Amino acid sequence: MAGTKGSRVKNKIAKKRKPLRASASRWTQCVRRGLRILQVPEIAKLPWLVHGFSTRLGGVSKLGGKRVLNLGFTEWDARENVKENRRRLQAALGAQELTLVSLLQFHSDAILHFESAPKEPARGDASLTKSAGLLLAVQTADCVPILLVDPKNRAVAAVHAGWRGTLARIAEKTIGQMHMEFGSKASDLLIAIGPAIGGCCYEVGTEVAAAFSAQFAGAAEFFDELRTGDEPNPLQWLNMMPPGHQPPAKKVLLDLRKANSAQLEAAGVPARNIFVSDLCTGCRRDLLFSYRKEGAESGRMMAVVGIRTKDKRAANR
User: Fold this and answer.
1) Residue 59 backbone zone (phi > 0: left; psi -120 to 50: alpha; other: beta)
2) What is the DSSP code string of 134-191?
3) How far out from the chain centre does Cα 252 lie?
4) What is the reported pLDDT for 251?
5) CATH superfamily of the domain spanning 8-196+274-311
6) What are phi and psi of 31, to 5 degrees?
7) Domain ranges across the chain
8) Within the chain, which residues score under 70 in pLDDT?
9) Are 303 and 294 in contact (CB under 8 A)?
10) β-strands 99-101, 134-140: how paired?
11) Cα(130)–Cα(118) distance, integer angstroms
């Protein structure tokens, strides 16, 4: 009976929520060399660009008796497995000639500009480049992966946005950095927001809701019920608790993809240029990794974007 009640609550929340601006039908799933990769057709058609969002399927790592594509150096997996998985991802994307550039992520608003491949992984949560031959990557297992593409200036960026990065406006700051470095205009950008934990599953404390409310005028749209913990409890004087005390405020559900979409639009990106996957990592553990649901034995997915050393059209001639 408890499971049935939980389903009713979840369905009620889903009905209350406004749909995401972009439709998941605009995304494609392609199986290449045993791996399933998610892409946005409008971005994939650019012949000078390579991009994709990995899933958990395929690979050489073993988790729960199944082979998975773990792309992060976790305690439960061997480094050799991760390196082979990364090699397979690049091969599936036809990006073997590009150098993979991953980050030491720490939930910040640190943005790095790469003109060449670094000798050692650098600390940051976003990277950008205009140099051919680099494949920028961010790792996720619930947080929001965001890829930014400037078709006019041939520049790209990859962003990792958890709730802290979103609160710090890392996506918006990345657009600003692209403008400073490459002359990119927000109105020209194509944005792909990949699979992440959805507003159906992502519980946070009221202190997080209060922080978002202080930063964003439209924060109420990011939550199922915007509670900051300061609301009065009408039953306070009718319960058995001592006067002046209230029960702890309940958790709230946060939609990080919606928060980042709103942030990007506010920065000047047209809604039609923002492509949002509606796949929830918490709901789709058959396809995706979720740290919230799986804990320390969760794997890591990658979102990658890069500029080819040779234009795809020229290579096919």
Assistant:
1) left
2) EEEEEEESSSEEEEEEETTTTEEEEEEE-HHHHHTTHHHHHHHHHHHHH---GGG-EE
3) 20
4) 87
5) CNF1/YfiH-like putative cysteine hydrolases (3.60.140.10)
6) -100, 120
7) 8-196+274-311
8) 1-25, 228-249, 312-317
9) no
10) parallel
11) 15
Strand partners, 302: 139
C-alpha of 170 from chain center: 12
Taking each helix axis from N to C end, the angle separating 256-266 and 170-182, rounded to the nearest 10 degrees, works out to 40
**Placement of tokens 């991760």 in the chain:** 82
* Dist CA 71 CA 61 (whole Å): 9
Where do we find the tokens 């994939």? 44
The Cα 235–Cα 232 span in angstroms is 9
Tokens of 126: 């976003």
Q: What is the pLDDT of residues 130-172, one digit of tens each?
A: 999 999 999 999 999 999 999 999 999 999 999 999 999 999 9
Enumerate residues 6+ apart whose C-beta is below 8 A from 127. Answer: 101, 103, 111, 112, 113, 114, 136, 138, 157, 158
β-bridge partners, 117: none
